[in-house]
């Protein structure tokens, strides 16, 4: 989208919002509700930036004048949560005729969802998908200036739009999209169908964005992609992900670099070496396992087996001893037996994860796994899930406690929401620590003594340098 067209659309939206302000006798409000992953969170920051430039006051209440749900569709319960919110906000709209309701994100790329919205949720004013988020200023103008439902879903990505207005949740840290889409087609996952094929951003654009963020006070960036390890392959001048990391490292003012997510099938020795030799790349790797059974991994189309995964994980542990390894595990995939779960538990014991996000398999219509035979009964899935979770928790506590008594640097992220006498910081290895402090410490790096491990977090105290 031409930048002048975007500016023109935002200016037109401002006039419409100004008119609404005069009608209401107050500043019109907007609420952005985010479901799903860090990619969606980053998209919501862009939506928020556009709404602010259009003249809206951002609030957290869904009774706002303009409410937009940025949806996720990885699991069916994510869809059900959105439908539940629509039922609630639809009731609010009956009392406030001027209210506008919008939907965007991955869930909107499913044809069955669009049909349901047309039929059951006709009060929704605006619907668009993942590939045309950058046209939101245009949609906003249409939505504010006319009645009736606006639906614009693109099947394929058109282009990567740079320099959208953005309002970050944290002034001192930010996500940076380095690529969009996914080529992996895991049989349980809907993402490649709704996010499209992999498209990498040009490295110069990524560097330019990082430099701009630094000028705005950001000291920590998280490079985002469905599989960052495959970054750069489709570019006219291919560049590897480790090479990109080295370029970001050179930017003065960046103190920490994180990334998410790293697929085990193509995590390279070059990446391990790059992290090992870096003072800026955080000591945390999220390495999704999904299953420890080679049979189930093949059915999932994960493109690695148990042995390959262990080889990668053990190499990471050996080369970067202070690294934190986290993972994703699915229990109850079609055809999974208790013996397959035994294989998963064996991997947990050998890798000793610092944390794991463990899920019971959720059938997603439109994925190959949804029509597979031997769907595991829910009762059996819960039984096996409890086994896996117990092992994860045991080793996570063991891994976390190895830092007890040490002094480590934490980036203070916020005043503790449960105790205002404490602040909450995050270590390089992604572990959370709560310690006495004040609001003026937020955004600063503080040396903290880790006094007491509480399993997934620490209690500590600031240490004077």
Task: Give your account of this protein's structure.
This protein has 465 residues and is an alpha/beta fold. It folds into four domains: 3-152, Rossmann fold, CATH 3.40.50.280; 173-243 and 253-265, Transcription Regulator spoIIAA (2-Layer Sandwich), CATH 3.30.750; 285-402, Transcription Regulator spoIIAA; 407-462, OB fold (Dihydrolipoamide Acetyltransferase, E2P) (Beta Barrel). The chain has 13 helices and 19 strands. It has helices at 3-24, 38-53, 76-95, 111-120, 136-145, 191-195, 203-215, 241-249, 269-276, 294-300, 306-319, 338-351, 378-401; strands at residues 29-34, 57-58, 66-71, 100-105, 126-128, 150-152, 173-177, 179-180, 199-200, 220-224, 256-260, 284-286, 324-331, 355-360, 407-415, 422-427, 432-436, 445-453, 457-462. The chain has a six-stranded parallel sheet with strand order 2-1-3-4-5-6, with helices on both faces. Helix 4 (111-120) links the parallel strand 4 (100-105) and strand 5. The radius of gyration is 23 Å and the shape is globular.
The main pleated sheet reads as:
6 strands, parallel
The fraction of residues in strands falls at 15-25%
Radius of gyration: 23 Å
Mean pLDDT across every amino acid position: 91
Strand arrangement within the widest β-sheet reads 2-1-3-4-5-6
CATH class of the largest domain: Alpha Beta
Number of helices: 13
CATH fold type of the largest domain: Rossmann fold
């Amino acid at each position: 989208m031409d930048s002048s067209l975007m500016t023109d659309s935002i200016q037109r939206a401002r006039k419409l919002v100004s008119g609404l302000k005069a009608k209401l006798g107050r500043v019109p409000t907007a609420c952005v509700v985010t479901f799903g992953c860090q990619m969606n969170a980053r998209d919501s920051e862009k939506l928020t930036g556009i709404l602010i430039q259009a003249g809206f006051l951002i609030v957290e209440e869904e009774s706002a004048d303009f409410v937009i749900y940025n949806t996720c569709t990885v699991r069916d319960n994510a869809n059900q949560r959105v439908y539940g919110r629509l039922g609630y906000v639809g009731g609010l709209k009956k009392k406030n005729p001027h209210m506008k309701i919008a939907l965007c994100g991955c869930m909107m790329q499913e044809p069955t969802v669009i049909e349901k919205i047309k039929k059951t949720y006709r009060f929704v004013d605006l619907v668009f998908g993942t590939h045309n988020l950058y046209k939101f200023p245009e949609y906003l103008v249409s939505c504010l200036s006319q009645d009736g439902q606006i639906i614009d879903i693109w099947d394929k990505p058109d282009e990567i739009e740079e320099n959208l207005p953005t309002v970050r949740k944290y002034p001192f840290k930010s996500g940076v999209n380095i690529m969009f889409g996914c080529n992996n087609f895991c049989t349980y996952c809907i993402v490649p169908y709704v996010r499209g094929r992999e498209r990498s951003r040009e490295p110069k654009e990524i560097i330019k964005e990082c430099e701009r963020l630094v000028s705005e006070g950001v000291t920590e960036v998280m490079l985002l992609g469905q599989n960052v390890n495959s970054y750069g392959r489709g570019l006219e001048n291919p560049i590897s992900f480790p090479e990109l990391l080295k370029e970001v490292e050179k930017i003065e003012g960046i103190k920490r670099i994180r990334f998410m997510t790293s697929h085990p099938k193509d995590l390279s020795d070059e990446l391990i070496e790059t992290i090992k030799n870096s003072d800026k790349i955080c000591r945390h790797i999220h390495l999704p396992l999904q299953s420890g059974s080679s049979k189930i991994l093949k059915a999932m189309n994960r493109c690695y087996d148990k042995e390959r995964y262990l080889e990668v994980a053990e190499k990471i542990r050996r080369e970067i001893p202070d690294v934190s390894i986290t993972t994703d595990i699915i229990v109850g995939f079609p055809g999974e037996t208790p013996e397959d779960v035994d294989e998963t538990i064996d991997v947990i014991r050998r890798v000793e994860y610092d944390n794991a996000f463990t899920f019971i398999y959720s059938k997603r219509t439109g994925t190959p796994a949804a029509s597979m035979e031997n769907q595991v009964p829910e009762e059996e899935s819960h039984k096996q899930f409890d086994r896996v979770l117990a092992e994860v928790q045991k080793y996570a506590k063991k891994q976390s406690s190895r830092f007890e008594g040490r002094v480590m640097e934490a980036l203070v992220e916020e005043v503790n929401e449960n105790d205002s006498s404490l602040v909450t910081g995050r270590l390089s290895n992604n572990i959370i620590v709560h310690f006495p402090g004040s609001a003026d410490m937020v955004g600063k790096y503080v040396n903290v003594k880790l006094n007491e491990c509480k399993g997934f977090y620490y209690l500590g105290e600031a240490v004077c340098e």
